Amino acid sequence: MSGEAGGRGPRTPADLPETTTHCPYCALQCSTELSGGPGRVGVRPSPDFPVNRGGLCQKGWTAPALLGTPGRLLTPLVRGADGVLAPASWDDALDLVAGRLRRTRERYGADAVAVFGGGGLTNEKAYTLGKFARVALGTSRIDYNGRFCMSSAAAATLAAFGLDRGLPFPVTDLDDSDVVLLAGANPAETMPPLMRHLERADLVVVDPRRTRTAERAALHLQPVPGSDLALALGLLHLAVTEGLVDKEYVDARTTGFEAAWESCAAWWPERVEAVTGVPVADMRRAVRMLAGARRAHVLTGRGAEQHSKGSDTVAAFIGLALALGLPGRAGSGFGTLTGQGNGQGGREMGQKADQLPGYRSLTDPADRAHVASVWGVDPDALPGPGPSAYELLDSLGTPEGPRALLVFGSNPAVSAPRAAHVTERLSALDLLVVADFVPSETAALADVVLPVAQWAEEEGTLTGLEGRVLRRRAHLSPPPGVRTDLELLHALAVRLGQPPERFPVRPREVFDELRRASAGAPADYSGISYARLDAGEALHWPCPAVPGGDHPGTPRAFLDRFAHPDGRARFAAVEHRPPAREPDAGFPLYGTTGRVLAQYQSGAQTRRVPELAEAAPEAFVEVHPDTARRLGLADGALAEVESVHGSTRARVRVTRTAREDTVFVPFHYPGAARANLFTGDALDPRSRMPEFKVSAVRVTPVGERS
Ligand SMILES: Nc1nc2c(c(=O)[nH]1)N[C@H]1C(S)=C(S)[C@@H](COP(=O)(O)OP(=O)(O)OC[C@H]3O[C@@H](n4cnc5c(=O)[nH]c(N)nc54)[C@H](O)[C@@H]3O)O[C@H]1N2
Ligand SMILES: Nc1nc2c(c(=O)[nH]1)N[C@H]1C(S)=C(S)[C@@H](COP(=O)(O)OP(=O)(O)OC[C@H]3O[C@@H](n4cnc5c(=O)[nH]c(N)nc54)[C@H](O)[C@@H]3O)O[C@H]1N2
Ligand code: SF4
Ligand SMILES: [Mo]
């Protein structure tokens, strides 16, 4: 235990008892115990936290290395007339930023200033960032990297269930599941401790690659990238024609089954096999396994979601789960695996282009009035919804687009689709400000870089993948010269003319405010407090404040009813369609992207951890042996992976895990090795999710030129 960040002054190792907190990286939010003083922080998994149950992955074990990483940002940097980033005082840096933001707004209007947030930010920071954008800047131009992550899942689950909670049940429910279908998820690499909850179940894994997760599967369906929607419709078709639909459940708890059946009636198994490459017998087996299980789950990951039809694909898998009577039934369910540390809370707190805290809507007058009253501003002064993440990045520095951008918690120069174009747009800005603790590739483009505190140096809350609100606790004070994101936003807001009390710097105060802002909303946190969390209570939202007692939270969201007014879940009628671009003679292969265990996201953090850099040092492209032979690609040689959008350089990894028609490149690497140099700008019409998971590419050898 320890005091709140902001209480400064160095502490000696002897003063430091262990601090219970959570891993800085993914949404599993494994609980950890930190020990030792600056420069020698130790980590061990908390033994009794139900989600990780004493497990950590390699990233979690090595996370302390990030605290004292040699490149750590310890002073503000301002780009001088000579074009070089040079150290500056906080006052000079903040005065400069505030002055230029004010002038930009005066000259070009409030929407000329934009904000880009992140799903790794604590609830308190995501909330404050959204408020800062709408109130201190008055801009509608705010979105965040969660658009690239959970937006398709969110759009589909909101439509189907009336509420978007990634897992509407605790992770431990999976322990007793008999069959779990994982569509486009590779948790053996992306959330290793989650596999402890999947030991009993027979796994059906849907992935074009034979991943480490697929190796553990009872059944591996290996579709062509971008064909999951056809596959899901085919599975639903089979459930109906084989008489496996849970009619009683469908009648009692859902609407829209007839329309959904119409949309999949023409997807008879042989047609689905022709489109997806999945044998009919395997599809039939998958459906029978799910239908025959006493308890079963259907879960989707980014492999099924990061497509220009991602939200319809999730809707189709939900349709399958509904037909089999899984969602909202004790011990069974449908869920989506949230990705970033606060990927769940970060999508509820109002940093999304169309959203206010608590999952309130920026277009609903009652929602606007409620939040405006908590913020002490006129509802009419709140801007409307803005463009989505990619559209925002695409518009930067154009005549109609923003001229200044503040980035908190993302590295879009590496992680955004069409990264070369996005880098160009970032460079076209009059002012780019990046708050980070490492010099990311995006920070390297900035005019002003502001050094902030990290996970183990700050207090706050994050909401894990099962909707449980968790406490992040400070073990150390931030190094001298470094501020917290909340302190930074406070200082900027004041310089922009805001009353100081409107932007508190103490996380607990921010949390108490966001409780009020979310009260009565779908993601209701009003019954949750630091005191309850610190007492060890497991609280899943919604957790409303109730008179005369403590609400126990909602571990299982849909047991009695779904969140639509009529209490029923909605089937959707969706159409399969090809990806934005299919392979052709010039670009004959499917290029897909994703993750490896030892790197995290754009790699800004994990590439700086020596053990992780050593484990996964550079970009590679997985190629099937037959394809490699045909293309003259030698294992270990450098290759160019090229699409109409651009090309990436990666080392060839010849492996039978790949389909013959598909290559895979991880997106964790910078410069010429960015996978996003070949991804395109097709977006899902509903969620605005980019098509990260399928491009048409060709792969050619390059000489080992230095
Ligand atoms: N080690 C590590 N762990 C992480 C992260 C990380 O960067 N590194 N990031 C975290 C975050 S933010 C996220 S969002 C999660 C993501 O977690 P996952 O969704 O598990 O990760 P990905 O590797 O992006 O994609 C999963 C799988 O989708 C497959 N795939 C590709 N195309 C298709 C397709 O068309 N259909 C289907 N069905 N599958 C396809 C890929 O082969 C890959 O194995 O991981 C979290 N955990
Ligand atoms: N090709 C391809 N591209 C993808 C994906 C894919 O599968 N394929 N996946 C997409 C997905 S799912 C995601 S989530 C995105 C993620 O991609 P990014 O948004 O780039 O995520 P990170 O690399 O985690 O970048 C976070 C940055 O913020 C910093 N940071 C971390 N915590 C804080 C904080 O509390 N405050 C501040 N100020 N800074 C902080 C980190 O040091 C880092 O530089 O990438 C997307 N891009
Ligand atoms: S699984 Fe995720 S939360 Fe757990 S240790 Fe690994 S990166 Fe951290
Ligand atoms: Mo993500």
Distance between the termini: 51 Å
**CATH secondary-structure class of the largest domain:** Alpha Beta
Write down the overall geometry. Answer: globular
Continuous helix count: 22
- CATH fold title of the largest domain: Rossmann fold
Strand content: 15-25%
Q: The biggest beta sheet, please?
A: 7 strands, mixed
Going across the major beta sheet, what is the strand order? 5-4-18-17-16-6-7
| Cα-based radius of gyration, to the nearest Å | 24 Å
Keywords: 4Fe-4S, Iron, Iron-sulfur, Metal-binding
Domain 4Fe-4S Mo/W bis-MGD-type: 16-69
Protein name: Molybdopterin oxidoreductase family protein
Could you please describe the fold and organization of this structure?
Helix 7 (228-241) crosses helix 9 (257-265), helix 7 packs parallel to helix 13 and helix 14 (365-375) packs antiparallel against helix 19. A hairpin with a 6-residue loop joins strand 2 and strand 3. The chain starts with 18 loop residues before the first strand and ends in a 5-residue tail after the last strand. By secondary structure, the protein is of the alpha/beta class. The radius of gyration is 24 Å and the shape is globular. It folds into four domains: 13-68, Phosphorylase Kinase, domain 1; 77-148 and 342-454 and 474-518, 3-Layer(aba) Sandwich (Rossmann fold); 151-336, 3-Layer(aba) Sandwich (Dimethylsulfoxide Reductase, domain 2), CATH 3.40.228; 589-701, Barwin-like endoglucanases. Mean pLDDT is 96; it is low at 1-10. The strands form seven sheets. It has a seven-stranded mixed β-sheet with strand order 5-4-18-17-16-6-7, covered by helices on one side. It is built from 22 helices and 27 strands. Keywords: 4Fe-4S, Iron, Iron-sulfur, Metal-binding.
